[in-house]
Specification:
alpha/beta, Rossmann fold, 3 domains, nine-stranded mixed beta sheet, 29% helix, globular, feruloyl esterase activity
């Protein structure tokens, strides 16, 4: 019988002890304590692989077997002195998770769980290291399978269940127990950090297990997952391949982007190559219609191409006339042209339909229709939609959630996040002034999928997206102060370096507004200065 809801039997480790300082809890003789943790840990359904003490600066080589080479994480530098423990946790008799914890010697009393991406079973070591550098006892897990594809879902609903919610929940329960054991005292506060699928995972915990976390950072969440996966499959059928009359080449997408900026960039008051509120951009591709007799141009669209581009930027409705997923937001095409518009299928969509929806490895993504979207949404295994708008239990718990989304996201349209925020407001009957107590959503202009872009995208979602400025310009730091000090963010501040290179200096800084407010250039300062913008 597999159960992680009952109390887990633990052994107290006499080799470890802690000294409570003003801010940090320090493990005495951490190397011995780490060895003892690996040797003596006794948890139901848990098999420890190893535990090792690692000093700060260790360049850790990561095993790349079992499809993990696709994860692209061959090594990771350890940021602080810590105990690393890895284990297998069985969730059923045919499924389980690989779980890993990094326990810093100078612990702050805080716990953090990291999320994943796509349909992958990759521990995001860069996020584990990032959170550990803040003094969190940090854990990550592999969603019940290895690698970046969904092959393991085939004819194994237990693995699907691990992917949807159980891997994260199980890893969190076990991770907290190990944290309390290693430091021989209970953790004080509990946090979560995730983006994309990791964002959906965070919302899943808030909705179904509202007392698990005190503070949650969710970026670009993959909410309404079966619907999102269906929407992602539409672009291949809308645009076709390079031989289709509807296909738009990569070069031509550059021209489309230029026209989008011509039509929409100035809505916020300044032409700076960034659209501050993509919901206000009603792009008209017909403005790019080729003149009669003009063919094979790289600056205009044929009638067939105009129709296809119009579909890309139109909300996607199902057979029942209800919204499946919002339109792709304008401004993301320079990267979306390689992800969705390149004339090939999208692997996450293909995997979901082949191995989960139909359990048919021969299913052809070129055959996709609205009937397939209905099948995926109707199936909705383990409520993968993650669209529950009633967050009252999380609110009662005292939890806080900081939700953000880049407005040039080329994988999950940013239009989906205000859709969910509005759904919560309607479901709970709360205006924004009341939601603010526990739920705040920020739109981050000019930012791609979880990172990068023309805008001030460095908001602290991950180490590579953290600017060396005021630590309050960091979503992870902000969720800590909101939970522990009641200091709720009114804006989140992003930084843009010249050519995205910190050695070349800061290009501009921008305060990103809390929804439903939007950023407008009001001057008189230069638009590169944060004080030149006002949230209205």
């Amino acid at each position: 019988m597999f159960s992680l809801l009952r109390p887990l039997g633990l052994l107290t480790l006499l080799a470890s002890s802690c000294l409570v300082g003003a801010q940090n809890l320090t493990v005495v003789d951490p190397a011995a304590a780490c060895t003892a943790l690996g040797q003596n840990l006794a948890l139901e359904n848990v098999t420890v692989n190893f535990a090792e003490y690692l000093p700060a600066g260790t360049n850790l080589s990561l095993s790349q077997g079992y499809n993990l080479s696709t994860c692209g994480r061959a090594s990771q530098v350890v940021p602080v002195d810590l105990c690393r423990i890895t284990m297998y946790v069985a969730t059923t008799n045919r499924s389980g998770i690989t779980l890993e914890g990094w326990l810093p010697t100078n612990w702050t009393g805080r716990f953090l769980m990291t999320g994943n991406g796509g349909v992958s079973g990759c521990i995001q070591y860069e996020d584990v290291a990032y959170a550990t550098s803040f003094g969190f006892a940090t854990f990550g897990q592999n969603n019940g399978h290895n690698g970046t594809r969904g092959y393991a879902f085939y004819q194994n609903s237990d693995v699907v269940e691990d992917f949807i919610y159980r891997g994260l929940y199980t890893g969190t329960v076990v991770g907290k127990q190990i944290t309390n054991t290693y430091y021989t005292q209970s953790l004080s506060t509990s946090f979560y950090l995730g983006c994309s699928t990791g964002g959906r995972q965070g919302w899943k915990m808030i909705q179904d297990y509202p007392e698990v976390f005190d503070g949650v950072v969710v970026g670009a969440p993959a909410l309404y997952f079966p619907a999102l996966t269906s929407w992602s499959g539409t672009f291949y059928t809308i645009l076709g391949n390079s031989s289709s009359d509807t296909f738009v080449s990569a070069d031509l997408w550059v021209a489309v982007n230029t026209e989008i900026m011509n039509q929409c960039d100035g809505i916020d008051g300044v032409m700076d190559g960034i659209i501050e509120d993509t919901l206000l951009c009603n792009f008209r591709p017909e403005a790019m219609q080729c003149a009669p007799g003009v063919n094979n141009s790289t600056t205009c669209l044929t009638s067939a191409q105009v129709g296809a581009v119009r579909q890309v930027f139109t909300d996607y409705y199902g057979l029942d006339g209800l919204l499946v997923f919002p339109k792709m937001q304008p401004g993301s095409e320079l990267l979306a042209r390689y992800i969705y518009y390149g004339g090939t299928d999208f692997s996450y969509t293909t995997d979901w339909f082949r191995y989960v929806v139909y359990e048919d490895p021969s299913w052809d993504p070129a055959s996709y229709t609205r009937a397939d979207a209905k099948a995926a949404i109707d199936q909705n295994p383990f409520n993968a939609m993650t669209g529950n708008g009633d967050l009252s239990a999380f609110q009662k718990h005292g939890g806080k959630v900081l939700h953000w989304h880049g407005e040039a996201d080329y994988i999950i349209t940013s239009d989906n996040s205000p859709r969910y925020y509005n759904h919560v407001s309607e479901t709970m009957g709360l205006p924004s002034s009341e939601l603010d107590d526990f739920y705040r959503f920020f739109r981050v202009s000019g930012t791609g999928h979880c990172q990068g872009g023309a805008g001030a995208h460095m908001v602290g979602q991950q180490a590579a997206e953290s600017a060396a400025t005021d630590p309050q310009n960091n979503v992870l730091a902000r969720i800590i102060t909101w939970v522990e000090d009641g200091n709720a963010p009114e804006t989140i501040t992003g930084t843009k370096y010249v050519n995205d290179d910190a050695t070349q200096g800061v290009a501009f800084v921008r305060n990103h507004c809390k929804y439903p407010l939007r950023n407008v250039y009001t001057g008189p300062a230069n638009y590169t200065q944060p004080e030149a913008w006002t949230c209205i």
